[in-house]
């Protein structure tokens, strides 16, 4: 096996499009000694897209594009096994892949449970790193949703120590609400105001990520949420925000960030707009 001792091994899911694609570009052209592994659903298509965007790679950097599908556990495990056999460890995991349009169960299966499956597969490789970072790319919609739900619902979500069984019950409650098309009883107007099941899936993702951060903190590496807002900012700006979260210290684990600013997990629309204006 070639030595990658002095390289930074970075895996980016969804690396063939959107913010993840821009993050791949920045790492390959502006950083040094980076091994960037883009996990994508269509390898050949993504290779062409990346090559068009990044015609030349900075000296000392490497790019690999591999198959990766958040909806396919075997695909996730195969990708993790490849990283282990090729590089021996992982320094940064950026979980960016997600879907926005489908039914509640499909969106949750990808955005939450697919992400959790990927984390489970790659965390043993992160544990072999001297400076590991796990970044869950979420959305400002997550904080806006939590800020809009009724108090009795908010207290169930706004915590760092939720158990697996408690989280599973919250998901089942949400599925029941979706089946009845009654979101207001438990979630007020959060579903209606903030992009439906997609926005709500990000609220659930934040709860999961907060609990995960506390679980892995004693092992000495950092897990952060990275949120972005899709206003006048460019995709490149969003990608730079993602990458800045891969450099935060262990003391900042379990926090959400947007363009270098810490974002509360629950905000009103006015509070969110004020924060974004400062970024």
TrEMBL record:
> What keywords is this UniProt entry annotated with?
NADP, Oxidoreductase
This protein's source sits in the domain of life called Eukaryota
Q: Does the keyword Cell cycle apply?
A: no
GO MF terms listed in the record are:
oxidoreductase activity
The record's InterPro entries line, in alphabetical order, gives: NAD(P)-bd_dom_sf (IPR036291), SDR_fam (IPR002347)
Task: Specify one Pfam family.
Answer: adh_short
Regarding protein family, the annotation reads: Belongs to the short-chain dehydrogenases/reductases (SDR) family.
Q: What is this protein called?
A: Uncharacterized protein
Q: Give the taxonomic lineage as stored in the record.
A: Eukaryota, Amoebozoa, Evosea, Variosea, Cavosteliida
């Amino acid at each position: 096996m070639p030595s990658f001792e002095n390289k930074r091994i970075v895996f980016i899911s969804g690396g063939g499009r959107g913010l993840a694609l821009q993050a791949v570009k920045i790492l390959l052209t502006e950083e040094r000694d980076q091994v960037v592994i883009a996990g994508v659903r269509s390898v050949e298509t993504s290779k062409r897209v990346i090559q068009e965007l990044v015609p030349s790679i900075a000296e000392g950097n490497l790019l690999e594009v591999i198959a990766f599908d958040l909806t396919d556990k075997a695909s996730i495990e195969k990708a993790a096994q490849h990283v282990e056999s090729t590089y021996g460890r992982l320094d940064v995991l950026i979980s960016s892949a997600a879907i926005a349009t489908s039914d509640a169960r499909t969106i949750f299966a990808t955005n939450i449970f697919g992400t959790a499956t990927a984390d489970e597969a790659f965390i043993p490789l992160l544990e072999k790193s001297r400076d590991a970072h796990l970044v869950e790319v979420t959305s400002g919609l997550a904080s806006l949703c939590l800020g809009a739900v009724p108090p009795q619902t908010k207290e169930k979500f706004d915590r760092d120590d939720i158990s697996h069984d408690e989280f599973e019950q919250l998901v089942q409650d949400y599925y029941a609400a979706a089946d009845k098309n009654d979101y207001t009883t438990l979630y007020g107007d959060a579903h209606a105001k903030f992009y439906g099941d997609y926005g709500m899936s990000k609220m659930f993702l934040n709860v999961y990520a907060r609990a995960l951060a506390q679980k892995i903190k004693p092992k000495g590496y950092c897990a952060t949420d990275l949120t972005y807002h899709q206003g006048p900012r460019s995709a490149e700006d969003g990608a730079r925000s993602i990458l800045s979260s891969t450099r935060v210290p262990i003391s900042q684990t379990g926090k959400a960030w947007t363009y270098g600013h810490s974002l509360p997990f629950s905000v009103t629309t006015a509070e969110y707009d004020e924060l974004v204006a400062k970024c």
